[in-house]
Every structure is written in C-alpha cells, then in structure tokens.
C-alpha cells in the first residue's frame, strides 16, 4: 500500500465518521418532528369541540346583545318621553308656578314691610305715652 492509498483510507474513514456523527442529530431531529406532528394532530382533534363550543357561545352572546339593543332602544324611547313630559310640565306649570312664587314672595315682603312700618309707628307712640305717663 502506498502513501496515497493510506491517505485515501484515512479520508474515507474520516468521512464515514463524519456521516455517522451527523446522522445522530438528524435522527433526533426526525424524532422531534414526528412528536411535533403527533402533538399538532392531537391539538387539531381536540380543537373541534372547543371551536364548536366557542361558536355556540358567540351565538348566545349575539342573542343577548340583540336583547340589550332592544332594551337600550326602549330606554331611549322612555328617555325621550320623559324629556317631552318635562318640557310640557315646564311649559304648562312652570310659568304659572314661577309667577305664583314671585307673587307670594312679593306679598310676604310687603306684609313684612308693612308690619315693620306699623311697628315703628306704634313703638314711637307707645314710647311717647310711656314717657308722658311716667312723668305724671
């Protein structure tokens, strides 16, 4: 055997060793991909009931939202009716009520002013009488 043939045998052995060393990670990667495929398949099989349940839940939520929309529309109608009623009340009773309140305030103020004026006049006369009667 010549030196070239020995070098070729060493290179061939090194190449076989390199192939074996690279084959181990490739086999492990293949097993990992098989396990990932199995996990994805199981997740897909288990996702059907979840998706059906989610679909039913969304349908139920949509039904409830339609009811809430109806309730909101009714509440809006009631609010409009209350607003109109308060406007009618203000227009029909608000003006006369304000006028009545103003009149009663004015009358009570006039009565107080008259009593005060009458009290001062009576007080002056009574003081004069007391002075005069006290001297006699």
Automatic annotation (TrEMBL):
Q: Which residues cross the membrane?
A: 6-27
The molecule here is called: DUF948 domain-containing protein
Is the keyword Transmembrane helix assigned to this protein?
A: yes
User: Keywords in UniProt for this one?
Assistant: Membrane, Transmembrane, Transmembrane helix
Q: Which Pfam families match?
A: DUF948 (PF06103)
UniProt feature, compositional bias: Basic residues? 125-136
Out of the domains of life, which is the source? Bacteria
Residues of the region (Disordered) are 116-136
